[in-house]
Structures are given as C-alpha cells and as structure tokens.
Design a protein that fits this description.
The chain is α/β, with parallel strands linked by helices. The chain is about 45% helix and about 10% strand. The longest helix is centred in the N-terminal third of the chain and has 27 residues, at about 1-30.
C-alpha cells in the first residue's frame, strides 16, 4: 500500500511539474505572425513570376493634365456654408473658395514636381504590384562611416510626400550625443493603391499584405536588417512588418499606437485610472486625453469617424465622385489636415490649415492623389482591414525594440501602460511638446530628434 502511495505521489508530482513547464514554455515562447505570398496583379500570375528589376522613375506633368484640372476647377459649383459654422460641418466653403483660387492662379505644379523629383525615385514589382519608393542615401559620409537603413511608411490621406521635411534631417544628421552615427539611408515607399504605387486588382489586400510587400522590398534592396517608422496606417503596417520578420526589423518607431485588442489591464485602467492614476502610471497628460470616457470613447469618435465607416463599407461610391472632382477631393482631404492636426481648429474660419502647413505642401499632397487617380484604391484599404475584425495580427505581440513618439494632438491617445500590452520591448515613450496626427509633416524637427535618439540608443545596446 505504501508503494502505491509513493507511486501515485511521483505521478502527481510529474504531472504538476510537466504542466508547470508547459505553461512557462507557452508563456515565454514568442509568437511570430504567419502569412502567405499573394498575387495582386490583374489576372493570373505570369509563369516566370515577378520582374525583380529595379527601375528608375520620376514624377511627370503635362499641359493636357493641367488644362483638364483647370477646366474642372473652373466648372465647380460653389455651396455656401452656414453662418458661424467654421469647420464644424466639414470643410468651410469660404475657405475652400480661397484654396481653389490659389490652386487655379498661383500654385505651380511644375515647380512642385521638380521638388518631388529632387530625390531618386524607383519602382519594382512585388506580388504583381508596381511598388513606388524614394531612396535617399546620406551625403558626404565620413571615411569608415556606416549607414543604417530605415523605411518610412505613410497613411491616409497622406503620401510619401509627408516625409519630405524629415528626409534631409535623417540623412544629414546624427543622433544627439552620438558623433559616430548612425547615418540613415531612407527608403520611403507609397502604400500599394496610394500615390504612384500600383493598386491591388484583387480583394483582400490589408496591412499584413502591405507589410509583407515592404519586407520583400527591403530584402530586394539588399538589406538584411533595417529600422521601420510609421504613423496612421503606416504605424500598423510597420508593426506588422516587425511581427512578420522580427529578425529583420532591428527597431520599430511609431507615432500612432491605438489598441487593437483591449487587455484586462487596459479595461481596468479605464475603470479605475481616473481615481487611482498612479496605480496605472497615468500622468496628468494621460488623464486629460483619456477622460472623461464618454467624450473620448463615444462622442469624439462618433463626431470624427464618419469617413471611416464609409470607407470601411462602400469606398467605391464616394470615391468615384472624388475621382472626378478636384475640388471635392481637396475638400475631403484638407478637412482632415485641419481637424486631425488640432481639433480646436474646427472653431476657425480657415480651419487653421496654414498655421502648420504651407498651402503649396497641402495642395501637392492633394495633387499626388489627383494625378495618380488613387483616391478610390486608397479608401479601399479601410474595407480590407476592417472586414476582418480580430485578425491574427491583433493578438501577436511585438518583441523588437520599439519607440513611441506621443504627440499631444494625436487622434487617439495611448498611455504607456496600454502601449506595453502590445509592444513588449518598449525602449522609449516620448511625450512630445506639440504636434498632431501628421506629425512628420507638421513637426519634422521633433520627429527627427526622437527617431534618431531611439535608433542611436538601440544601436548602442546592440
């Protein structure tokens, strides 16, 4: 009887120890996002696969293109805004009339094309999509200096042009206090369906597909390891890049980190954080941006997310009209550059558009959409991403070193506690002095400083 008791005790201990080891193994094992190659070109893929060549590209313009634009601008039918409505009903018509007048009489697209073409542009075909990108190498490198590649990814309704103020700061400067580098080599692609990248011809091209394409782009350019930065959709795409290829992405830097899969800690902090802020590491700035919950989680999203519902359900309907009307397109895009830069700009007659940006830069971004005819395909990206709620990537943590630049006027605020639920290797979390959703375009100096500091710190630790 004593032998049987001993035997059963040993079995019980073995089972408990085995369960404990299995539980610890599951807890420590790092999940990697899985994906399969796709084909997004028209028809069936060619027998020989993609053309892997890298082809120089430049933005062009023509007299016929400008005459067509001017004809459409001249034929616009004005609509009066309500009295004392500012930007609360959307793009103010009086402000829009001034923008259109400047666009028609003073804006010089040819000069802006020269500005865009100051950097080398290329195209290469990946999974049936002609991917457009800007590739800028640092100038006048010291002898023996090394370069570190970084890919910058934009969102909607932005473009690669958002980074034109940031690129020279990254390729000419070094991180503060680090005179030995690193010197950055910048690759700035257009998301497929945006700008001068081809649009997918098949359903299902979401952020994970874009991440896979961009990882392939970096590999094709000869980079085995690289950094990634993004905001808006770019923040999600670069996050997916790190989830797919954690050995290739040396570090991830983002300025938009909304929670895609609420955790117990996040829900608890929402319930108790206002009363016990120190328990969750909430700062006064966190409290100001997160509470009251009814305003931040209900009223504000309802007021500002109508565009998202349209684009996530029936993008082709509204997109078709915007593709025909340059004035409609400008109104649709510029209203976002007003409200998403600072929501208080809704109280201004001019939407505060030129307080942070020049009208030339704003119209150049619009012209990239207009001349490429990409507004419909860019809007479809919402439908592809929102059609699969609870997608696998929302449940996979990010383990690569991560830095977050937290700009005060960002659309959605994510306290450090919430960010760490997704980004398990958070190396830096920087509350920024000023700036909104289009931070790289609005505050390139602040963005460059934080990005360079993050990369310098990560390189030193490696």
């Amino acid at each position: 009887m004593r032998v049987n008791n001993t035997m059963w005790s040993e079995v019980l201990v073995t089972v408990v120890m085995g369960t404990l080891v299995y539980w610890v193994f599951r807890r420590t094992r790092r999940k990697v996002l899985k994906t399969e190659d796709g084909w997004w070109g028209a028809g069936a893929p060619p027998v020989g696969g993609d053309d892997n060549s890298i082809r120089p590209f430049s933005i062009s313009h023509s007299q016929e293109e400008m005459e067509d634009l001017y004809r459409r601008l001249d034929a616009t039918r004005p609509v009066s805004s309500l009295e004392d409505s500012q930007f609360h009903y959307g793009m103010n018509s009086q402000c829009l009339a001034k923008v259109v007048s400047y666009w028609r009489r003073d804006y010089d697209w040819r000069r802006q094309v020269d500005k865009i073409n100051q950097y080398p542009h290329y195209k290469t075909t990946i999974e049936g999509i002609d991917v457009h990108y800007v590739h800028v190498k640092p100038q006048s490198l010291p002898v023996g200096a090394r370069t570190v590649p970084i890919v910058l990814v934009h969102g909607w309704p932005g473009s690669f042009y958002e980074f034109y103020g940031l690129i020279p700061l990254l390729t000419a400067a070094v991180a503060p206090g680090n005179t030995d580098g690193p010197h950055l080599e910048v690759i700035c692609p257009s998301l497929p369906g945006y700008g001068f990248s081809g649009a997918p011809h098949k359903k299902g091209f979401n952020s994970v597909c874009a991440a896979r394409v961009f990882n392939k782009l970096m590999s094709r350019l000869g980079f085995q390891q690289y950094y990634a930065h993004g905001g808006d959709w770019g923040g999600l795409v670069t996050t997916n890049m790190a989830q797919l290829e954690p050995e290739a992405v040396k570090g991830l830097h983002i300025n938009f980190a909304p929670s895609t899969s609420p955790s117990v800690a996040m829900v608890t902090s929402l319930m108790l954080g206002r009363r016990f802020p120190s328990l969750f590491g909430f700062t006064p700035f966190d409290l100001q941006r997160v509470f009251p919950l009814k305003e931040t989680l209900l009223f504000e999203p309802v007021r500002e997310s109508g565009y998202m519902h349209i684009q996530a359900t029936k993008p082709d309907t509204v997109g078709r009209g915007l593709n025909d009307s340059p004035v409609g397109l400008a109104a649709y895009i510029l209203e976002k550059f007003s409200t998403w830069t600072d929501k208080s700009f809704k109280n201004l007659e001019d939407g505060g558009l030129t307080r942070k940006f020049s009208l030339d830069d704003l119209l150049t971004n619009v012209m990239i959409y207009w001349t490429s005819g990409c507004i419909v395909s860019s809007m479809r990206f919402y439908k592809e991403n929102f059609s699969e709620l609870g997608a696998p990537h929302t449940k996979v943590p990010v383990y690569v070193p991560t830095g977050v630049a937290c700009f005060p006027n960002e659309l959605m605020h994510a306290p450090r506690l919430w960010v760490k639920q997704k980004y398990h290797n958070l190396r830096s979390y920087s509350p920024m002095a000023r700036g909104g959703h289009f931070a790289a375009m609005e505050e390139p100096g602040l963005m460059a400083e934080d990005l360079l500091a993050f990369i310098s710190m990560t390189e030193k630790k490696k």
